[in-house]
Amino acid sequence: MRSRVFRGPKSDHRSIRSPFACFVVIYRELQSYGIDVSCYDPEADRAEVKHEYGIELLAEAPQKGPFDALILAVKHRSLLAAYPWEKIQSLGGPRPPVVIDVKGFTAKRPDIGGAVVWQL
Fold this sequence. Notes:
Oligomer: single chain
Number of strands: 5
CATH superfamily: NAD(P)-binding Rossmann-like Domain
Strand content: 15-25%
Helix content: 25-40%
Radius of gyration: 14 Å
């Protein structure tokens, strides 16, 4: 299984209350199950994240899947603009991925249709 995590604002990723702390917990838990996890955050300092947590962030968001699941850890405005619902669904390959919405990325999107979305 492959999944992808979109991670949120990074004001201080070392704080246990930061959105980044939530991301690290999700990332490590998925890895503990043997899941191949790809992570992208257009606003994070990739070198700092690698140094602090040993997590390699992708330099660019993949334009194709297939991903079995997408975990939307926050709603960056840039991600909202770059990923309309059709784009998110296309990342699943032949079938749409399960979308796990941690921070309300999909809350007010009328274009979701019949997709499998888990809102936490």
